[in-house]
Amino acid sequence: MMRYNSRRAVQNIRSGLDASFLIQPPPQAKPRRAIPPGYIHLGVSKEIAPTLRDFGIEPNSLIREAGLDPSLFDDGKSVVAFTALARLYALCVAQTRCPHFGLLVGRRATILSLDLIGRLMQHSETIGAAVDALVSNLGVQDRVVVASLDVTDDMALLTYAAYQRDNSSAQQITEAALAVTVNALRTLSGFDWRPTEVLLPRAAPAEAGPYRHHFKAPVRFNQESATVVFPAGDLKRKVAGADPLLRAMVEEQLQRLRGHAGSDFPDDIRRLLRTRIMGRRSSASDMAELLAIDRRTLSRRLRDGGSGYRTLTNEIRFEIARQLLEDTDVRLGEIAAALGYSEASAFTRAFRRWSGRTPTAWRTATGEA
To answer: Among 237, 62, 82, which Cα is nearest to 144's?
Structure first.
């Protein structure tokens, strides 16, 4: 059996190859490129094809119907448009009649499905550093989903959200992300690790067993976010087998990709807003302070990108409101409070401006569709 070779693994990372345990020679690597807004590394969603086969469904026809090439699913590093991937998830749910299809996809995935980010997590010194690596680098491989970590009292909350204007199938994609995250944390912490609870922004399903079976923890539905909750003390746990040299090499490659990403300032602001608009300060002044620029510079850069801060804020609020109205039974007053409105009536007026309907009418219409 070939032994693990740290030096060879480092060379592979530098050249863009997987830093695996090299039982066999790795294939020729494709050049890595930064991805534009609205696109995502296939990554975890590569497991769509085998998940469909588990249902006895040949995946290629559905993949083509969604507008994608089935050969893309041979490589988790393939880059696809979110709109096409969202169509595929919708087709999969309809064909399998499985409302938790995204959960099944994420359940099959591993920490290695996260590509470079997964490698960086494996070689982080602690669980906290691994989670920070995930949160801070996700945008290099994924311009659709954003992650955030909050530590309150003695609990850590790792949250995912889709932030694109077309949020169809966002529920499936975020559930896949939660499922693989738990797999990754079990890989790093030990397979007996389990979260304290999992929060899901969807109505309670008829059968919650698949969720409890995978997460091995209480699952709360009709929540405002997709969140894994676990003891903050777990963040201090050491990651067994972490290699500082490999970590440095992976960080170098991610930094290089980040440097080649180009500038799409409005998209960056959308990502930040999606993680901060619920329960945090998210005014233009707050955002400028976070970015260490003055407010006028923030406004100018957004104008140069064809947008404005208030416009982006309202777009994000509308996206979150639609998702909660369509996928959950959360009461209007709670949605209003989550989005920063002091009264439900103010939220109703804003939602009518955005959509031409009241929140109640929107929920009724989408529930009947």
So the answer is: 82
